[in-house]
Design goal:
This protein is mainly beta. The chain has three domains: about 40-120, Phage tail protein beta-alpha-beta fold (3-Layer(bab) Sandwich), CATH 3.55.50.30; about 165-265, Ferric Hydroxamate Uptake Protein, Chain A, domain 1; about 270-825, TonB-dependent receptor, beta-barrel domain (Maltoporin, Chain A), CATH 2.40.170.20. Helix content is about 5%, strand content about 55%. The strands form eight sheets. It has a 22-stranded antiparallel beta barrel. Strand 38 (about 770-780) and strand 39 form a beta hairpin.
């Protein structure tokens, strides 16, 4: 639909054009997204709109209500407003503001109103006397102020959380802003049911329901194989300044991509250009010299509103509680959305993310028996010349066509390239109780990674009637191609590192010294291509009962070529994997108990190629397969502004990769060969709630109970035991924010807790982190209609704990000590 033109000041238009131009020139191409605005509602709420000009009062209302108002500047010029204070629904509030102003409001579409002089317009609705039904929350979360969403898009199309028969957590824009979540690592660490593991060689692994998440990432629903950006970890430099929300699905996600484990998938949904001009500025300063600035602006770029844009720029520098560690992040994002006609929208866009860091990788050692050595949390065994540089450039485009009110076509494409250059030193070695000056072996690593990913997705989504009921059909196809070209080398350093008094000024080895002196390293070239077709039918069997059936047919091909040195010998691998016509089915039933509650049961198939794991004869392992079951109940209240869920889950995976410590393979990541003898089961309970629980109280939280068991393994002694001891049995993630009332209405208070039971790793000894909880809080004050100042505190009671349990000799990382951030945000 074409957008309505809006009144804008010359200064605002100039600022927005300049910022958009800066982002687009930095990214070398314009960006695109379909214009949407958050939906309104009929729920009453407290309004505090200051007296002043009518134009300013209307602007305050539009921001708080999540709607767009269009009017002629001359119709409000010189008019004042007494403001608004009290409880109204949004339509009543707008009516109160227009009383006596000689203006009527005419609805133009979802969340859009046209204000016209009463003498110049007939048929308009005078909201002072007439209530008009509002709209529910939509999929977009930016500007809604909500901790929940009206719809998710991770499964194609838009469906409410209640209509989605799997567990999905949505971290909205407001939630990320309130908690200062600025990276993908921050987001995943605050997501219910997700466990993170920091790799000694950089990046983080993510675990869900007892399984590692492997490359299950989407950008606006387009799947990419992003799990190979590090040789050792499944993490990357995603800056949250670019995104409207993050959708995290827990459980098997093979219907989305074809290949996938029982862990889940993550969908990054970018910010969208809006029909209403907006600009926001955010500045923050915190502990360890943490400084950040964000600018976000957008709106119509022509008088007709058929071309809309959005740009975001982010700059951050920060130190760390660990010695030598520091980091600088930059992100540039721009988006254009062009209405080719009333039914067709074309979007193009790009983003650029840059990380320059001096990391402290490798982690800390323990005593030889596995007990913590209680080293200072500032301890780092690396060197001052440690360096990590990451450059990611992404281009994307989409075309959306609305055939009619029921049928829609969407075609999307994404191309991403990531370059990483890393040079760092670390140390490893256990600590003896009777040694007052323990030292550790020091080594240095040099890594050069070049990764390219391309994804394409096209689908048709439509509703039709049969047997007197409405049904939905989705037909689509997608594909992805990922390539990696990596070179790495690791060599020992001539000096040992003091553990209690580290020296960060070892001589830096020349880059040319690594290849001839390395004890481990080589080259890896890999290309993974997969494509498939999919279909989902949502069939209404009766008014309260829906059957969902779907299937995907996938074709997968992978070639991995490596030339590596390990265990003192060179080895060459040229492994090829091909899977043809692999069928991944999905089925679910949803039964509506009443207008608020639904029960559901779902089944999903598991299929995951394992081309990166080699057997003793050099061949790739056969794919991992299995089954995923989920049974639950979901609730939706207050027109979708509060969502809840309770789920029981069970997943069984077979043919899992396991290290065979009796064999050696130089081409593998850990130097050992692999077998596919693993069979594991994970089961448990998940409960989650998100949204407005009480008036002015936003809440997001979840509890997860996970039990894993090894049903078959190469190590017979472990059979029947816990298969993944690193994932805690019990996990709680909760955050809430409450806006005070009355004379204190400008204040809001937030608090939350991240708690979990013990987790551990067992090798020749047991290394354990006892259960712990960290508390966080936020205090915010709305200075005026434009500015808000806030103070955030993390780990308020300064709990000392390991957020990653490694081995006795390395890989143990402390969680962050107590820290604070002061922020100032303005909306214009």
């Amino acid at each position: 639909m074409q957008a309505i033109p809006f009144q804008r000041s010359p200064l605002k238009r100039t600022v927005q054009a300049a910022l958009l131009g800066a982002c687009l020139s930095s990214a070398a191409v314009p960006l695109a997204v379909r214009a949407e605005t958050p939906a309104g509602d009929t729920q009453t709420r407290d309004w505090q709109i200051a007296a002043g000009s009518l134009a300013n009062a209307l602007d305050q209302f539009a921001r708080q209500a999540g709607v767009s108002l269009s009017y002629d500047a001359t119709s409000v010029a010189g008019k004042t407003s007494p403001g608004l204070s009290g409880r109204f629904d949004p339509q009543q509030a707008l009516g109160q503001l227009l009383l006596g102003q000689g203006l009527d409001a005419q609805r133009q579409g979802n969340n859009t109103w046209l204000l016209l002089p009463q003498v110049a317009q007939t048929g308009a609705l005078n909201l002072g006397a007439t209530m008009v039904t509002g709209e529910r929350l939509g999929a977009l979360t930016d500007g809604t102020g909500s901790y929940t969403t009206g719809a998710v898009t991770i499964g194609k199309g838009e469906h409410s959380l209640r209509e989605t028969p799997q567990s999905v957590s949505v971290l909205t824009r407001q939630l990320m802003d309130d908690q200062n979540l600025t990276t993908i690592d921050d987001v995943m660490e605050r997501t219910p049911g997700i466990t993170t593991y920091e790799s000694p060689m950089g990046g983080k692994y993510f675990y869900s329901r007892g399984f590692k998440m492997l490359g299950q990432y989407q950008y606006d629903g387009v799947p990419l194989d992003m799990g190979k950006d590090y040789v050792q970890a499944d993490s990357f430099s995603a800056n949250m300044a670019i995104y409207d929300r993050v959708e995290v699905l827990k459980g098997a996600a093979g219907m989305l991509k074809g290949a996938g484990t029982a862990s889940g998938a993550v969908n990054f949904v970018r910010k969208r250009p809006q029909a209403k001009p907006t600009t926001s500025l955010s500045l923050s300063a915190g502990t360890w010299d943490n400084y950040r600035a964000d600018v976000d602006t957008g709106g119509p770029l022509n008088d007709s509103g058929t071309v809309r844009g959005r740009a975001a720029i982010s700059q951050q520098t920060r130190g760390s509680y660990m010695d030598i560690q520091k980091r600088q992040d930059q992100a540039f994002y721009g988006a254009l959305d062009i209405d080719l006609n009333p039914d067709t929208t074309l979007g193009v866009g790009a983003s650029y993310e840059d990380v320059d860091a001096s990391p402290c990788w490798g982690g800390l050692p323990r005593y030889a028996d596995g007990k913590s050595a209680n080293l200072s949390r500032s301890t780092c065994l690396g060197q001052s010349w440690n360096d990590w540089q990451s450059r990611r450039t992404t281009f994307f485009a989409d075309l959306t066509h609305q055939f009619n009110d029921d049928w829609k076509l969407k075609v999307s494409a994404v191309h991403s390239r990531n370059l990483q250059d890393t040079k760092y030193a670390a140390s490893e070695g256990t600590i003896a109780y009777d040694n007052p000056t323990p030292t550790a072996n020091s080594y240095a690593a040099l890594m050069d990674y070049n990764h390219k990913d391309f994804g394409l997705d096209a689908y048709v989504d439509g509703k039709f009637e049969a047997f007197g009921l409405e049904h939905e059909l989705i037909l689509g196809a997608n594909g992805s191609r990922g390539t990696q070209d990596d070179v790495y080398a690791i060599q020992n350093l001539p000096r040992r590192q003091s553990i209690y008094q580290p020296d960060h000024h070892f001589p830096e080895p020349a880059n040319s010294s690594f290849w001839p002196n390395m004890y481990r390293g080589g080259t890896v070239k890999e290309t993974a291509t997969q494509y498939g077709t999919y279909a989902t039918l949502r069939l209404r069997l009766a008014e309260p009962l829906m059957l969902i059936v779907g299937s995907r047919v996938s074709w997968y091909e992978n070639r991995r070529q490596s030339y590596n040195l390990a265990w003192g010998e060179w080895a060459t691998q040229d492994a090829r994997t091909r899977e043809t016509g692999e069928v991944t089915p999905f089925a679910a039933l949803i039964y509506d108990l009443n207008e608020h509650l639904s029960v559901y049961a779902s089944y999903a198939d598991i299929f995951q190629p394992q081309s990166s794991y080699a057997t003793v004869d050099g061949a790739a392992l056969q794919p991992k397969v299995g089954d995923n079951y989920e049974l639950g109940i979901k609730g939706e209240w207050f027109d979708g502004r509060l969502n809840s869920s309770l789920a029981l889950f069970r997943a069984i995976e077979k043919n899992g990769a396991e290290s065979d410590y009796t064999t050696q393979c130089a081409t593998s990541a850990d130097g050992f060969c692999y077998t596919d003898k693993g069979k594991v089961r994970a089961q448990g309970v998940e409960a989650e709630i998100s949204g407005e629980v009480l008036e002015r109280l936003q809440l997001f939280g979840g509890y997860t109970y996970t039990q894993t068991q090894s049903l078959s393994t190469i190590d017979v002694a472990k059979q029947g035991g816990t298969s993944n001891t690193y994932v805690p049995r019990h996990m709680l993630r909760v955050w809430g924010d409450y806006q005070l009332d009355g004379a204190l209405s400008k204040w809001s208070v937030g608090t939350g807790v991240n708690a979990q039971s013990s987790n551990y790793r067992v090798q020749t000894i047991k290394l354990e982190q006892p259960g712990y909880a960290t508390w966080n809080a936020r205090l915010a004050y709305r200075v005026d209609d434009t500015w808000t100042v806030a103070l955030n505190g993390n780990n308020l009671f300064d709990k000392t704990y390991y957020n990653t349990v490694g081995t006795a000799s390395w890989g143990n990382f402390y969680g962050e000590p107590r820290n604070f951030t002061v922020s100032l945000k303005g909306n214009f």
